[in-house]
Write the structure tokens for this entry.
Amino acid sequence: MEFIDLQSQYRLMRDPVNRAIQEVLDTSRYINGPQVKELEGALAEFVGCGHAVGLSSGTDALLAILMAWGIGPGDEVITTPFTFIATAETIALTGAKPVFVDVEPDTLNIDPGLIAAAITSRTRAIMPVSIFGQCADLDAINDIAKAHGLWVLEDACQSFGAANKGRRSCGMTTAAATSFFPAKPLGGYGDGGMAFTDDEELAQKIKVIREHGQIAQYRHALLGINGRLDTLQAAILLAKLPFFEGEIQARQEVATRYAERLGGKVRIPEIRAENLSVFAQYTVRVADRERVRGEMAQAGIPTAVHYPIPLHHQAVFAALGHDRGEFPNATQAANEVISLPMHPYLTAEQQDLVCQALVRAVG
């Protein structure tokens, strides 16, 4: 059994994907080919925002947005300690300080009720993460940001396609960034990412930053990065996009089956009524996780842990001086979470095997 079955997906999409790749090979426009601009337009329309800018990864999309805002040494950006390292890494790479706020115990998204107390005179932005494919409480976060004159950057690297009150992830904040890593809900065949915003000036700055800060050949107005989205990845994503809505629906069906079989036996994900999750992961919580994982592995069931070490426990952020007991909800989640196989092509029979193994293991 595959944790994420990319081969079944490719078999379904083989012809349009192969045609898209061949078109790029035939034209040899591997950098800044027309498919990049076409994808930007299609995804801006999908999200419902004014501008989308393709970048080389979700990490670079986050970084380019922060750079375009001019965030740097002496600034602070509020975020969550329960996420992949890239979230806080990009803040630190600008020279700014990541300021952690604990997560909600149920959704594991940043707790809006704790954000205001973390704001100082140096705070410039808030970076919520829409963890595991479910939007954070962006309305509440936007209200806090507006009251304090701050930007909001949604780290939507796991939530492209998700929705809150009918509005798409990536289209509800000052800016947003997503990832097209192959395992993501909309994944390419390598690295890729995109930045989203309604702010035309910000979008133009991000475009300059992704090209080494270049405004014309060999004329560099800003400090930039080599952050372009490859034409091949854009072409592949365009070929996959018509299948995406169907895959989102299939993910709902897979998640519903898991909830029916596992509810009351383990702590399953809590999805708020106003949210549509894309279930980038289906993550439950168990005690004695390593034993449970070991027993499931013996039964032939792959699992993963997202994320076993909260960011305030990471050596790279030791200089921030956090006590290991801070952010108890994030720490507890890091000790308990276990992600089960999740993709649109997971059959009911496969899920039965997963659930049987998990229920046996938790006893």
